[in-house]
Amino acid sequence: MPKVQRDDLPRALFQHLLDRVAGRGLTVDELFQLLTWPEKNPEVPVEPWFKRFNKFTVCGEGALIKTFLTPKQTAIGIELE
Fold first, then answer.
1. What's the CA gap between 41 and 18, in Å, rounded?
2. CA–CA separation, 52 and 11 (whole Å)
3. How many other β-carbons are positioned within 10 Å of the β-carbon of residue 60?
4. Rounded Cα distance, 42 and 63, in Å
5. Angle at 13 between CA 9 and CA 18, to 5 degrees
6. pLDDT at residue number 56
7. Domain boundaries, the chain
8. Residue 58: how many other CB atoms lie within 10 Å
């Protein structure tokens, strides 16, 4: 199983993630949660997946984080613990 990719993200994807952080109004504490989670080197499935945090959900596919959702939005894929 792949691990979450933290470096060398495609430029368009990185910009999309920055836009979502701003658009979702993530706080510094929430960003800290997001940054420390991949440091635990979690394994993620190749297919779509998501991880719920207190006030947002991270969605990805394979090694890449693809977007962030608000608690009211529905995530698709395998839920990670």
1. 22
2. 25
3. 21
4. 10
5. 100
6. 92
7. 11-73
8. 24
Q: How does pLDDT run across 21-44, given as a tens digit for each residue?
A: 898 888 899 889 888 888 888 899
CA 15 to each of CA 3, 10, 20, 27, 55: distance values in angstroms, whole numbers, following the listed order: 21, 9, 9, 18, 21
Distance of CA 44 to the CA centre of its chain: 11
pLDDT beyond 90 at 80:
yes
The β-bridge relationship of strands 78-80 and 48-52 is parallel
Q: Classify residue 79 as exposed, middle or buried by CB count within 10 Å of its CB (0-12, 13-18, 19+).
A: exposed
Tell me how far the alpha carbon of residue 9 is from its chain's centroid: 13
Which pair of tokens denotes residue 70?
Answer: 């608000």
Tokens of 13: 């994807």
Q: Are 4 and 63 in contact (CB under 8 A)?
A: yes
